[in-house]
Design goal:
single chain, about 675 residues, alpha/beta, 11-stranded mixed sheet, 8-stranded mixed sheet, 22 strands, elongated
Length: about 675
């Protein structure tokens, strides 16, 4: 129970209740791994096997071909394994995801599960509720139909300023019996409250405010009816009512009038019309004929086509139920939602509206929001008539689903997932929880949502805004792209380190880098620069590309080829610096120091190349990530200290380089990105 007053009779308990049925649906859903988790799990297994094989080969070559001491060869192999294995990978992934959650939280998207950050970047279908997510959730009664007459209601928001008009002229509702009864019915059939500025100041901050003055609590539809009644001179404070019953899509109250009572009904037209045998026309109660019912249904369609939510009203007394009329309420789309839907369209993300409203109302709102595609809309009843195979075949033809229940929402999510889509499902009620949990990314509303919905969700929107979800999708894409960036950086560097040592041994060279020097490389390059690279802001084209396919490899789009190409360049240039210093008369210690500087400098230059998969160093924006510049500066300072300070030179077996030797190291370091950038230009031209 979320609001209202009632007396109830217990007929079922536990799993036999509606709450129990929902709990069973929640139990039937399973936790799912995101595409990134699957990709990294597969990659981790392959990487571990590859590194173990390489280290074993190096150990065998050192012992059996070069005749080195077994213990020294073992220590060397272990040091290389430590440098080659990107042990910071899992921690950096977690750190980047955590930073992503913090940024999203500042933008009103609370991430409850860390994996959801990456999952958002894969979303290809957004199933969104209408009220409060796509629309403003600020209902205003704008049209009334009673007794064959049409009236309009002026004024917006919670202010009581406004009037009821007919043909552009103000009318006194109290002189129109049917109109008066409809306003009384709307005022009584609700549990909402409107508060004056003075009352609002005494209430908590959760009350919805209108321009800092009037506020309201309760369902927005009922708030709109209260405001309309006040505009017509009907005040609920002067009426006495006791709501006693509530059932799906209609509400009733019993009102004591002297010695007798009467009952007012409010609800969807197709739920109220079957109750009524009479109607009120010209202040008199007359039979409600089939032609009259057809006229009412045409009015419902007409108002719904104007994007109005339509409610019907009736009064029951002495066994006779009298139809009073219709009220149409406007809940306009958010401008931010329109922009978000356009952004999704550019990003090839399908936005779908799922609502309990009338089919025509939902379609009209969807059209205003720029959401309507293909056929008009599908109702829950039409959905029930389709088999799963038939639903899968026609799913692409609809972007609006109206008059749906919780089971329909769950079925739609499963249908999209059967088609291989990554689905984000929004909702706020207890009934939405199964669909929210079943979706790849479940999204609950923070302002209007229930605790059950929030507990089932991966993401909570504190402002109940579709635009916030789309911003979170962009951030999710950014996080995934950043993970690709630092994985590219780490693996390229580690491949360069492994090739430096492996090729040096195969070519009969002295050991190019000592174990302590390998550990220094690992310390300087694998930590801060990789983390800073994970904090890159979104690239401008992030939301201009289609979402990733669920079965797409983490190393798609030639990423692995670029990793190996860059790693090979790093290894070759490091060996080039080492051998050049030896051939120019330098000592073995100087050659190792030059190789160490070349290896680290080329990696620190490469980290800037990894800022984008589509730009070269010549077109890269460098000032948009100051964390990366700071991390590279710290790493350079550590390298300089290891070469300059005598105490550290002893620890890392380094020496001061002469100016020619320093030029050799710098030259080979810059040759790596130059070759890589030229290759990138040719690749893009092709």
């Amino acid at each position: 129970v979320t609001y209202g007053r009632a007396r109830f009779l217990v007929t079922s308990t536990g799993m036999h209740t509606e709450m129990g049925r929902i709990a069973a649906l929640l139990k039937s859903t399973e936790e799912k791994k995101t595409p990134l988790q699957v990709s990294l799990d597969q990659f981790g297994r392959k990487l571990s096997i590859g590194i173990l094989v390489i280290c074993a080969l190096l150990f065998a070559v050192s012992v059996f071909l070069r005749g080195e001491n077994v213990m020294n060869a073992f220590l060397f192999a272990v040091a290389l394994a430590v440098a080659a294995i990107p042990e910071a990978l899992s921690s950096i992934v977690t750190i980047v995801l955590s930073f992503g959650t913090q940024k999203m939280a500042r933008e009103h998207a609370i991430i409850r599960k860390l994996q959801a950050v990456e999952g958002l970047g894969s979303v290809s279908v957004i199933c969104s509720d209408k009220t409060g997510t796509i629309t403003e959730n600020r209902m205003t009664v704008t049209a009334v139909r009673v007794g064959g007459e049409s009236f309009s209601v002026t004024g917006t928001g919670l202010q009581k300023a406004g009037a009821i008009q007919q043909d552009g002229r103000n009318v006194n509702p109290l002189s129109k019996p049917a109109l008066k009864e409809l306003l009384i019915c709307g005022a009584l059939c609700c549990t909402a409250e409107i508060h004056s500025p003075q009352e609002s100041a005494r209430r908590d901050r959760s009350a919805r405010t209108d321009k800092g003055s009037w506020s309201a609590t309760g369902d927005p539809t009922e708030v709109a009816l209260l405001v309309a009644a006040e505009k017509g001179g009907v005040s609920r404070q002067e009426l006495r009512s006791e709501p006693f019953d509530s059932e799906t899509r209609r509400m009733s109250v019993t009102v004591t009038q002297g010695a007798g009572t009467c009952t007012y009904w409010k609800g969807a037209a197709d739920a109220i019309l079957p109750l009524c045998g009479f109607q009120m026309r010209d202040g008199k109660t007359v039979p409600f004929s089939e032609s009259d019912r057809a006229a009412v249904r045409r009015s419902v369609t007409e108002l719904s086509d104007q994007a109005l939510r339509v409610l019907a009203f009736a009064r029951q007394e002495d066994g006779a139920c009298v139809f009073l009329g219709l009220a149409g309420m406007l809940d306009p789309p958010r401008e931010s939602a329109r922009t978000a839907i356009r952004t999704c369209a550019r990003a090839n993300i399908r936005t779908v509206m799922i609502t309990g409203d009338h089919k025509n109302t939902a379609a009209a709102i969807a059209k205003q929001a720029g959401l309507l595609r293909g056929k008009k809309a599908m109702t829950g009843d039409e959905l029930d008539a389709l088999s799963d195979a038939q639903l899968d075949a026609c799913l692409d033809q609809y972007t609006v689903f109206a008059r749906v229940n919780p089971a329909h929402k769950l079925r739609l999510v499963r249908a999209y997932r059967r088609r291989g889509e990554i689905v984000a499902m929004t909702g706020d009620g207890v009934n939405d929880a199964p669909a929210i949990k079943e979706a790849d990314v479940g999204v609950a509303m923070g302002k209007s949502g229930t605790d059950v919905a929030r507990q089932a969700a991966d993401v909570v929107l504190t402002d109940d805004n579709l635009a916030t979800l789309v911003d979170a999708v962009e951030q999710g894409r950014c996080v995934y792209a950043n993970i690709r960036k630092f994985v590219r950086y780490l693996l390229s560097c580690n491949i360069g380190e492994v090739l430096t040592m492996f090729l040096g041994i195969l070519m009969g060279m002295p050991v190019v880098l000592l174990p302590t020097q390998l550990l220094l490389v690992n310390l300087v390059t694998d930590g801060l620069p990789a983390i800073a690279l994970g904090l890159e802001p979104p690239e401008p084209e992030a939301m201009q590309k289609p979402p990733r396919k669920p079965d797409e490899s983490f190393f798609s789009d030639g990423l692995m080829g670029r990793i190996f190409f860059r790693g090979i360049l790093i290894g070759i240039c490091t060996l080039g610096a080492f051998s050049t210093v030896i051939r120019t008369g330098g000592t073995l210690e100087a050659a190792r120091t030059a190789a160490l500087c070349t290896l680290i400098l080329s990696q620190l230059v490469h980290v800037f190349e990894c800022k984008s998969e589509r730009r070269t160093l010549f077109s890269m924006p460098y000032g948009n990530n100051l964390w990366l510049i700071g991390a590279v500066a710290v790493s350079l300072a550590v390298l300089a200290a290891a070469v300059v300070f005598p105490m550290l030179r002893v620890i890392f077996s380094t020496v001061m380089l002469t100016r020619p030797q320093l030029y050799i190291a710098l030259g080979f370091s810059l040759a790596v990105p130059l070759c890589s950038s030229v290759a990138g230009l040719f690749r893009r031209k092709k």
